[in-house]
Design brief:
By secondary structure, this protein is an all-alpha fold. The chain has eleven helices and no strands. It has one domain.
């Protein structure tokens, strides 16, 4: 008996997905709605890149002044420039992280809603996606805030331990202890980060598509990942490596040019501006690809886990057949993602 072809009304076939399906579906998500996906990602990337670029341009200008004419730089002036450089660098980084917290959270919600419709072959504008998702934003910020706390607590504990160690260990021995403790902590923290990042990878889709609260969404993500942890982790790591490589190829030329302008044109306002602009362009190009691709992979992995553990593909196929009969994708398809529609409870 010949196999029936798998339904594929949108960006993915409506069956459990392989790695190729997930990557191909993410690319199709971007290509099917480039204005909404890439346009919003570019705005988000620009907003997060500009503060960091300004801080880096200031640091490069300070370094360039010292390298160009070190004889004219007194020790006091050099120390003051160094303090200004550190303040600019860390200030720009903190501002960038603060903006990123808000902007990327908003972007993730909108992209997830676009993806939910694209699975059925439907297109949705950025404005429509925002209207559908804006009521979910408090819960989405709740998830991001809880994740930030989970990731930050070990760092705070480590800093406190290092301070206590520095106060109670002789300086000669303290350096070795500090180096050893730092290397051990980085190794343990890397594993800690990967574990919780994977366990809560589907919390954002659960908030946006299922209408859950922050804690319930994180519990839902934990449950969906259970039984397939290593596969989810492997796909997410591979995605990060691929996207990081491509983003690096796009951003490095601009960052390198910005660095050259910043250091060798030190003292010139024009050079500082050009440096900041080039670094910002590099950061924007890299992040503009990273944000939608990682959000797309997470969303399709979420769909795959529901198809594997809840027979959700049967729900999607039934809805797709009805839509093909009607000849269009109705907005009611958004409600299909609610867990009450799973073929298995």
């Amino acid at each position: 008996m010949p196999h029936q072809p798998v339904l594929r009304p949108g960006i993915i076939p409506l069956r459990p997905l392989g790695l190729g399906d997930i990557l191909d579906g993410t690319i199709k998500l971007i290509r099917s709605n480039p204005k909404a996906v890439l346009g919003l990602s570019a705005i988000a990337a620009l907003l997060t890149s500009v503060p960091l670029a300004i801080g880096q341009a200031f640091v490069l200008d300070t370094m360039g002044s010292t390298l160009t004419d070190p004889s004219q730089t007194s020790a006091a002036a050099a120390e003051l420039d160094s303090l200004y450089g550190v303040a600019a660098q860390y200030g720009g980084t903190l501002v960038s992280y603060a903006v990123q917290f808000v902007v990327v959270t908003l972007l993730t919600g909108i992209l997830t809603r676009i993806l939910g419709r694209a699975v059925f072959g439907g297109n949705i504008t950025a404005g429509e996606a925002w209207r559908l998702v804006k009521s979910r934003m408090p819960a989405l910020f709740g998830v991001v805030g809880l994740m930030t706390v989970i990731m930050a607590v070990p760092l705070i504990v480590f800093v406190l331990l290092i301070v206590a160690l520095a106060m109670n260990v002789p300086p000669r021995d303290g350096a070795l202890w500090l180096l050893g403790a730092t290397l051990l902590f980085l190794l343990v923290y890397f594993c800690y980060y990967l574990f919780f990042r994977t366990r809560f990878a589907f919390a954002s889709p659960a908030v946006v598509l299922e209408g859950r609260g922050p804690i319930d969404a994180m519990r839902r993500s934990w449950h969906l990942v259970s039984g397939d942890f290593w596969r989810v982790l492997g796909i997410m790591l591979l995605t990060s490596l691929l996207v990081g490589l491509v983003a690096g190829l796009l951003s490095v030329p601009f960052t390198l040019l910005g660095t050259i302008f910043g250091m060798f044109g030190a003292g010139s306002v024009g050079s500082a501006i050009v440096s900041a602009v080039l670094i910002a362009i590099g950061g924007t190009l890299g992040a503009m690809l990273t944000y939608p691709f990682e959000a797309g992979v997470a969303g399709l992995l979420y769909a795959d886990r529901r198809m594997r553990s809840e027979a959700f593909d049967l729900v999607l196929q039934t809805a797709a057949i009805e839509q093909q009969r009607q000849g269009w994708v109705h907005s009611s398809t958004d409600d299909l993602w609610h867990p009450s529609n799973s073929a298995k409870p």
